[in-house]
Each structure stands twice: as C-alpha cells, then as structure tokens.
C-alpha cells in the first residue's frame, strides 16, 4: 500500500511539473485554393454552378506500383499541364506517402483548377489481416 501511495505521489508530481515541448512556428502558406465542392440533392456545385467531374485515375506505373506521384514535382509538373489540356478537373491518386512533402504538386493542381480525390490506403502504413495485433 505504501508503494502505491509513493508511485501515485510521484505520478502527480511528474504530471504537475511537466511542460510542453517547444515547437517552431511555421509561416502560413499562401496557397491559391480551388472553390469548395458542395452537394445539393444528387448534384455537385462549385461557386454556385453545377460541377461535373471530368477525371482520371492518376497513378504513373499503374495501381500496383505504389509510387506517390504527388511527392515528385518532375512527374506532376510534366502531367498537370496535360490534364488541363484534356479538360480534366479532378484526379484520383491511389498511393500517397504521408511522410513526404506534397506542397508543390498540390499548388500546381490548385493553380490548374484541378481537384484531388486521394485514396486513404497506404502500403507502408496498413493493418495486416493475417496478424493485425502488432500493427
């Protein structure tokens, strides 16, 4: 019982004296964004006008390649102008690596007026069905 009281007191003391870790303040990113798409009834609207998705699945190398095309500015810089020429206003990406930077490609998409539909699966961070507990 005495050891429990000592551990409890130590825990309270630790919690009371704990201080948050300092973080660096980042400057806000000034990015041009595309208008929000809203749903009304069975239709999409952007800026009050009916929005029709004219899109493609975008995964250079195919869906099994598991390469993040939005992390490579060479790839997206090459392809986004072609999407615009084709009249594409929405792309779907299969694989996104959340440990990489996507700012430049996302800005290129926004500048071109192209929306992104991102799958939430990730081959690097997923649950193994055969052995889910260690994940």
TrEMBL record:
<dbReference type="GO" id="GO:0031505">
    <property type="term" value="P:fungal-type cell wall organization"/>
</dbReference>
<comment type="function">
    <text>Splits internally a 1,3-beta-glucan molecule and transfers the newly generated reducing end (the donor) to the non-reducing end of another 1,3-beta-glucan molecule (the acceptor) forming a 1,3-beta linkage, resulting in the elongation of 1,3-beta-glucan chains in the cell wall.</text>
</comment>
<dbReference type="Pfam" id="PF03198">
    <property type="entry name" value="Glyco_hydro_72"/>
</dbReference>
<dbReference type="InterPro" id="IPR004886">
    <property type="entry name" value="Glucanosyltransferase"/>
</dbReference>
<protein>
    <recommendedName>
        <fullName>1,3-beta-glucanosyltransferase</fullName>
        <ecNumber>2.4.1.-</ecNumber>
    </recommendedName>
</protein>
<comment type="similarity">
    <text>Belongs to the glycosyl hydrolase 72 family.</text>
</comment>
<dbReference type="GO" id="GO:0071970">
    <property type="term" value="P:fungal-type cell wall (1-&gt;3)-beta-D-glucan biosynthetic process"/>
</dbReference>
<keyword id="KW-0336">GPI-anchor</keyword>
<feature type="signal peptide">
    <location>
        <begin position="1"/>
        <end position="18"/>
    </location>
</feature>
<dbReference type="InterPro" id="IPR017853">
    <property type="entry name" value="GH"/>
</dbReference>
<dbReference type="GO" id="GO:0098552">
    <property type="term" value="C:side of membrane"/>
</dbReference>
<keyword id="KW-0472">Membrane</keyword>
<dbReference type="GO" id="GO:0042124">
    <property type="term" value="F:1,3-beta-glucanosyltransferase activity"/>
</dbReference>
<keyword id="KW-0808">Transferase</keyword>
<keyword id="KW-0732">Signal</keyword>
<keyword id="KW-0325">Glycoprotein</keyword>
<keyword id="KW-0449">Lipoprotein</keyword>
<dbReference type="GO" id="GO:0005886">
    <property type="term" value="C:plasma membrane"/>
</dbReference>
